[in-house]
Amino acid sequence: MKAGAAPVLDSQGRYRVVKRVTLVGALVNAFLALGKLIIGWLGHSQALIADGVHSLSDLLTDAVVLIAARHGSHPPDPEHPYGHRRVETVATTGLGLFLVMVALGIGADAVIHLLEPEARPMPEAIVLAAAALSVLAKEGLYRYTLAAARRLRSAMLRANAWHHRSDAISSLVVIVGVGVALMGYPWLDAVAALAVSVMIAKEGGEIAWQSLRELIDTGLEPEEVKKLEAAILDVDGVRALHMLRTRTHGGHALVDVHIQVDPRLSVSEGHQIGEMVRRRLVEHMEDVDDVMVHVDPEDDEECSPCHHLPLRNKVLAHVEDTWRSRGIPVEKIMLHYLEGKVAIDVFVPLSHVRDVDEARALARELAEEARNENVGEVHVHFTVL
Question: Tens digits of per-residue pLDDT, 139-150?
Answer without folding.
Answer: 998 999 999 888
